[in-house]
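> example.struct
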Protein backbone atom coordinates (compact mmCIF):
# COMPACT_ATOMS: atom_id res chain seq x y z
CA UNK A 1 0.00 0.00 0.00
CA UNK A 2 1.41 3.41 -0.93
CA UNK A 3 2.09 5.87 1.87
CA UNK A 4 0.17 9.11 2.30
CA UNK A 5 2.37 12.00 1.14
CA UNK A 6 2.54 14.78 3.72
CA UNK A 7 4.24 18.19 3.55
CA UNK A 8 4.69 20.36 6.64
CA UNK A 9 4.56 24.15 6.29
CA UNK A 10 6.13 26.15 9.12
CA UNK A 11 8.50 23.21 9.53
CA UNK A 12 11.12 25.24 11.40
CA UNK A 13 8.66 26.35 14.08
CA UNK A 14 7.70 24.73 17.38
CA UNK A 15 4.58 22.94 16.09
CA UNK A 16 6.03 22.29 12.64
CA UNK A 17 9.08 20.48 14.08
CA UNK A 18 6.85 18.37 16.35
CA UNK A 19 4.58 17.52 13.39
CA UNK A 20 7.45 16.53 11.09
CA UNK A 21 8.77 14.25 13.83
CA UNK A 22 5.34 12.70 14.37
CA UNK A 23 4.77 12.11 10.63
CA UNK A 24 8.22 10.47 10.24
CA UNK A 25 7.35 8.01 13.02
CA UNK A 26 4.21 6.71 11.25
CA UNK A 27 4.59 3.74 8.90
CA UNK A 28 1.69 4.71 6.62
CA UNK A 29 2.79 8.36 6.20
CA UNK A 30 5.69 9.81 4.23
CA UNK A 31 7.12 13.26 4.94
CA UNK A 32 7.67 14.48 1.38
CA UNK A 33 8.49 18.11 2.10
CA UNK A 34 9.17 20.79 4.67
CA UNK A 35 8.50 24.46 3.86
CA UNK A 36 8.85 27.63 5.90
CA UNK A 37 8.85 31.41 5.58
CA UNK A 38 10.33 32.50 2.23
CA UNK A 39 9.61 29.23 0.40
CA UNK A 40 7.23 29.02 -2.57
CA UNK A 41 4.51 26.88 -0.96
CA UNK A 42 2.60 26.17 -4.19
CA UNK A 43 5.78 25.01 -5.95
CA UNK A 44 6.80 22.88 -2.95
CA UNK A 45 3.42 21.14 -2.89
CA UNK A 46 3.43 20.47 -6.62
CA UNK A 47 7.04 19.26 -6.84
CA UNK A 48 6.59 16.93 -3.85
CA UNK A 49 3.15 15.77 -5.08
CA UNK A 50 1.96 16.26 -1.51
CA UNK A 51 -1.53 14.93 -0.79
CA UNK A 52 -1.85 16.56 2.63
CA UNK A 53 -0.26 19.81 3.84
CA UNK A 54 -0.09 20.54 7.56
CA UNK A 55 0.23 24.27 8.27
CA UNK A 56 1.48 25.70 11.57
CA UNK A 57 2.74 29.15 10.58
CA UNK A 58 1.56 32.67 11.43
CA UNK A 59 -1.93 34.16 11.86
CA UNK A 60 -1.27 36.70 9.08
CA UNK A 61 -0.48 33.90 6.63
CA UNK A 62 -3.08 31.33 7.67
CA UNK A 63 -5.88 32.18 5.22
CA UNK A 64 -3.53 32.74 2.25
CA UNK A 65 -1.69 29.49 2.92
CA UNK A 66 -4.93 27.51 3.14
CA UNK A 67 -6.06 28.90 -0.21
CA UNK A 68 -2.67 28.10 -1.77
CA UNK A 69 -2.78 24.54 -0.44
CA UNK A 70 -6.29 23.94 -1.80
CA UNK A 71 -5.43 25.41 -5.21
CA UNK A 72 -2.12 23.51 -5.45
CA UNK A 73 -3.75 20.10 -5.08
CA UNK A 74 -3.20 19.43 -1.37
CA UNK A 75 -5.70 18.77 1.38
CA UNK A 76 -5.03 21.34 4.13
CA UNK A 77 -4.76 20.42 7.81
CA UNK A 78 -4.37 23.85 9.33
CA UNK A 79 -3.58 24.41 12.98
CA UNK A 80 -2.54 28.03 12.57
CA UNK A 81 -4.83 30.34 14.51
CA UNK A 82 -6.08 33.85 13.79
CA UNK A 83 -8.79 33.08 11.21
CA UNK A 84 -11.79 35.40 10.89
CA UNK A 85 -15.15 33.73 10.31
CA UNK A 86 -15.42 35.33 6.85
CA UNK A 87 -12.03 33.80 5.88
CA UNK A 88 -13.25 30.36 6.89
CA UNK A 89 -16.48 30.73 4.91
CA UNK A 90 -14.58 31.91 1.81
CA UNK A 91 -12.14 28.98 2.06
CA UNK A 92 -15.01 26.53 2.55
CA UNK A 93 -16.56 27.81 -0.69
CA UNK A 94 -13.25 27.26 -2.53
CA UNK A 95 -12.87 23.74 -1.15
CA UNK A 96 -16.44 22.86 -2.06
CA UNK A 97 -15.89 24.08 -5.61
CA UNK A 98 -12.72 21.95 -5.86
CA UNK A 99 -14.37 19.08 -3.93
CA UNK A 100 -11.21 18.90 -1.85
CA UNK A 101 -11.30 18.00 1.85
CA UNK A 102 -9.50 19.80 4.62
CA UNK A 103 -9.60 20.94 8.21
CA UNK A 104 -8.97 24.15 10.10
CA UNK A 105 -8.65 23.28 13.78
CA UNK A 106 -7.76 25.85 16.43
CA UNK A 107 -6.92 23.01 18.80
CA UNK A 108 -5.87 19.43 18.03
CA UNK A 109 -5.80 18.25 21.65
CA UNK A 110 -8.72 15.96 22.38
CA UNK A 111 -8.96 17.36 25.92
CA UNK A 112 -9.44 20.87 24.58
CA UNK A 113 -12.07 19.64 22.10
CA UNK A 114 -13.94 18.03 25.01
CA UNK A 115 -13.62 21.19 27.09
CA UNK A 116 -15.32 23.15 24.27
CA UNK A 117 -18.15 20.62 24.08
CA UNK A 118 -18.62 20.59 27.87
CA UNK A 119 -18.59 24.40 27.92
CA UNK A 120 -21.37 24.58 25.33
CA UNK A 121 -23.39 22.10 27.40
CA UNK A 122 -22.82 23.99 30.67
CA UNK A 123 -23.78 27.33 29.09
CA UNK A 124 -27.36 26.11 28.71
CA UNK A 125 -27.61 26.15 32.49
CA UNK A 126 -25.02 28.84 33.37
CA UNK A 127 -25.33 31.83 31.03
CA UNK A 128 -22.85 33.93 33.05
CA UNK A 129 -19.51 32.82 31.66
CA UNK A 130 -15.99 34.14 31.13
CA UNK A 131 -13.09 32.54 29.23
CA UNK A 132 -9.48 32.79 30.37
CA UNK A 133 -6.74 31.49 28.08
CA UNK A 134 -3.10 31.23 29.12
CA UNK A 135 -0.21 30.76 26.66
CA UNK A 136 3.55 31.07 26.32
CA UNK A 137 4.95 34.58 25.89
CA UNK A 138 5.79 34.15 22.19
CA UNK A 139 2.20 33.56 21.06
CA UNK A 140 1.32 36.27 18.53
CA UNK A 141 -2.47 36.38 18.47
CA UNK A 142 -4.87 37.14 21.30
CA UNK A 143 -7.32 35.80 22.14
CA UNK A 144 -6.34 32.28 21.10
CA UNK A 145 -8.18 30.46 18.31
CA UNK A 146 -9.37 27.96 20.90
CA UNK A 147 -10.93 30.75 22.98
CA UNK A 148 -12.70 32.12 19.89
CA UNK A 149 -14.07 28.70 18.94
CA UNK A 150 -15.12 28.03 22.54
CA UNK A 151 -17.04 31.30 22.63
CA UNK A 152 -18.65 30.58 19.26
CA UNK A 153 -19.91 27.25 20.64
CA UNK A 154 -21.09 28.83 23.90
CA UNK A 155 -22.83 31.64 21.98
CA UNK A 156 -24.61 29.17 19.77
CA UNK A 157 -25.77 27.14 22.82
CA UNK A 158 -26.98 30.33 24.53
CA UNK A 159 -28.83 31.54 21.43
CA UNK A 160 -30.57 28.22 20.91
CA UNK A 161 -31.67 28.34 24.57
CA UNK A 162 -33.89 31.41 24.03
CA UNK A 163 -33.60 34.97 25.29
CA UNK A 164 -33.85 33.89 28.96
CA UNK A 165 -30.37 32.42 28.57
CA UNK A 166 -28.40 35.61 27.83
CA UNK A 167 -25.34 36.55 29.91
CA UNK A 168 -26.18 39.17 32.54
CA UNK A 169 -25.82 42.84 31.52
CA UNK A 170 -23.87 44.94 34.02
CA UNK A 171 -24.51 48.53 32.94
CA UNK A 172 -23.06 50.03 36.17
CA UNK A 173 -19.67 48.39 35.57
CA UNK A 174 -16.81 50.88 34.97
CA UNK A 175 -13.18 50.04 34.08
CA UNK A 176 -10.79 52.34 35.94
CA UNK A 177 -7.93 50.63 34.08
CA UNK A 178 -8.76 50.07 30.42
CA UNK A 179 -8.97 46.38 29.55
CA UNK A 180 -9.29 45.24 33.16
CA UNK A 181 -12.47 43.29 32.32
CA UNK A 182 -10.85 41.69 29.28
CA UNK A 183 -12.10 41.80 25.71
CA UNK A 184 -15.52 40.71 24.48
CA UNK A 185 -16.25 38.35 21.61
CA UNK A 186 -19.90 37.69 20.73
CA UNK A 187 -20.74 39.41 24.02
CA UNK A 188 -18.67 37.06 26.20
CA UNK A 189 -15.66 38.29 28.20
CA UNK A 190 -12.29 36.79 27.28
CA UNK A 191 -8.96 37.26 29.07
CA UNK A 192 -5.54 36.40 27.58
CA UNK A 193 -2.53 35.74 29.78
CA UNK A 194 0.97 35.48 28.24
CA UNK A 195 3.76 34.19 30.47
CA UNK A 196 6.92 32.11 30.04
CA UNK A 197 6.30 28.70 31.59
CA UNK A 198 2.88 28.22 30.02
CA UNK A 199 2.39 26.27 26.76
CA UNK A 200 -1.39 26.21 26.07
CA UNK A 201 -4.10 26.32 28.73
CA UNK A 202 -7.72 27.41 28.97
CA UNK A 203 -10.23 27.86 31.72
CA UNK A 204 -13.96 28.51 31.32
CA UNK A 205 -15.69 29.77 34.45
CA UNK A 206 -19.46 29.71 34.90
CA UNK A 207 -21.06 31.55 37.78
CA UNK A 208 -24.51 31.38 39.35
CA UNK A 209 -25.70 32.46 42.80
CA UNK A 210 -23.83 30.36 45.35
CA UNK A 211 -21.79 28.31 42.86
CA UNK A 212 -18.91 28.44 40.38
CA UNK A 213 -18.27 25.76 37.78
CA UNK A 214 -14.73 25.75 36.35
CA UNK A 215 -13.68 23.74 33.28
CA UNK A 216 -9.96 23.69 32.58
CA UNK A 217 -7.61 22.12 30.07
CA UNK A 218 -3.81 22.18 30.38
CA UNK A 219 -1.36 21.31 27.63
CA UNK A 220 2.06 21.51 29.28
CA UNK A 221 3.61 19.83 26.21
CA UNK A 222 2.97 20.06 22.45
CA UNK A 223 2.89 16.25 22.25
CA UNK A 224 -0.83 16.39 23.11
CA UNK A 225 -1.63 17.93 19.72
CA UNK A 226 -0.07 15.16 17.60
CA UNK A 227 -2.73 12.41 17.82
CA UNK A 228 -5.31 14.93 16.56
CA UNK A 229 -3.02 16.16 13.78
CA UNK A 230 -2.30 12.59 12.61
CA UNK A 231 -6.01 11.68 12.80
CA UNK A 232 -6.84 14.70 10.60
CA UNK A 233 -4.02 13.95 8.12
CA UNK A 234 -5.46 10.49 7.50
CA UNK A 235 -9.06 11.71 7.43
CA UNK A 236 -9.01 14.74 5.11
CA UNK A 237 -8.10 12.84 1.94
CA UNK A 238 -11.49 11.11 2.09
CA UNK A 239 -13.45 14.33 2.62
CA UNK A 240 -14.90 16.69 0.02
CA UNK A 241 -15.15 19.90 2.00
CA UNK A 242 -13.23 22.02 4.47
CA UNK A 243 -14.30 21.56 8.09
CA UNK A 244 -13.73 23.90 11.05
CA UNK A 245 -12.84 22.30 14.39
CA UNK A 246 -11.52 18.81 15.11
CA UNK A 247 -14.90 17.91 16.65
CA UNK A 248 -16.51 18.34 13.20
CA UNK A 249 -14.61 15.36 11.72
CA UNK A 250 -14.25 13.06 14.75
CA UNK A 251 -17.41 11.09 13.97
CA UNK A 252 -17.29 11.17 10.16
P1 LIG B 1 6.40 29.29 15.62
O1 LIG B 1 7.28 28.48 16.51
O2 LIG B 1 6.61 30.75 15.50
O3 LIG B 1 6.47 28.61 14.17
C1 LIG B 1 5.93 29.16 13.02
C2 LIG B 1 6.87 28.88 11.86
O4 LIG B 1 6.23 29.30 10.66
C3 LIG B 1 8.19 29.68 11.98
O5 LIG B 1 9.26 28.90 11.52
C4 LIG B 1 7.89 30.88 11.07
O6 LIG B 1 9.05 31.49 10.56
C5 LIG B 1 7.12 30.20 9.98
N1 LIG B 1 6.31 31.11 9.17
C6 LIG B 1 5.84 32.34 9.49
N2 LIG B 1 5.11 32.83 8.47
C7 LIG B 1 5.14 31.90 7.49
C8 LIG B 1 4.60 31.82 6.18
N3 LIG B 1 3.89 32.81 5.66
N4 LIG B 1 4.82 30.70 5.45
C9 LIG B 1 5.55 29.69 5.95
N5 LIG B 1 6.12 29.71 7.17
C10 LIG B 1 5.91 30.80 7.93
O7 LIG B 1 4.87 29.11 16.04
P2 LIG B 1 4.15 27.80 16.68
O8 LIG B 1 4.22 27.88 18.15
O9 LIG B 1 4.63 26.58 15.97
O10 LIG B 1 2.63 28.10 16.30
C11 LIG B 1 2.23 28.24 14.95
C12 LIG B 1 0.73 28.43 14.89
O11 LIG B 1 0.07 27.27 15.39
C13 LIG B 1 0.21 29.60 15.75
O12 LIG B 1 -0.85 30.25 15.07
C14 LIG B 1 -0.32 28.91 17.00
O13 LIG B 1 -1.33 29.63 17.66
C15 LIG B 1 -0.87 27.64 16.39
N6 LIG B 1 -1.04 26.50 17.29
C16 LIG B 1 -2.11 25.71 17.05
C17 LIG B 1 -2.32 24.57 17.78
C18 LIG B 1 -3.49 23.69 17.46
O14 LIG B 1 -3.71 22.66 18.13
N7 LIG B 1 -4.26 24.01 16.41
C19 LIG B 1 -1.43 24.24 18.81
C20 LIG B 1 -0.33 25.06 19.05
C21 LIG B 1 -0.14 26.18 18.26
P3 LIG B 1 9.72 32.75 11.36
O15 LIG B 1 10.05 32.23 12.72
O16 LIG B 1 10.90 33.10 10.51
O17 LIG B 1 8.66 33.81 11.40
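> example.seq
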Amino acid sequence: MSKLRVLVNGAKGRMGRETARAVRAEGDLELVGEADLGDDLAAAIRSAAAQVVVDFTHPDAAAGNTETILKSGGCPVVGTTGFRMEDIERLQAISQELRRGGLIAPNFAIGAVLLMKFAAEAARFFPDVEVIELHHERKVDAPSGTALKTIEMIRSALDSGGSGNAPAERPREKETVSGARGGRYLGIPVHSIRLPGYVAHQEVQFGAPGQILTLRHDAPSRACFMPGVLFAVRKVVALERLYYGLDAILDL
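> remarks
The first strand starts at residue 4 and ends at 9.
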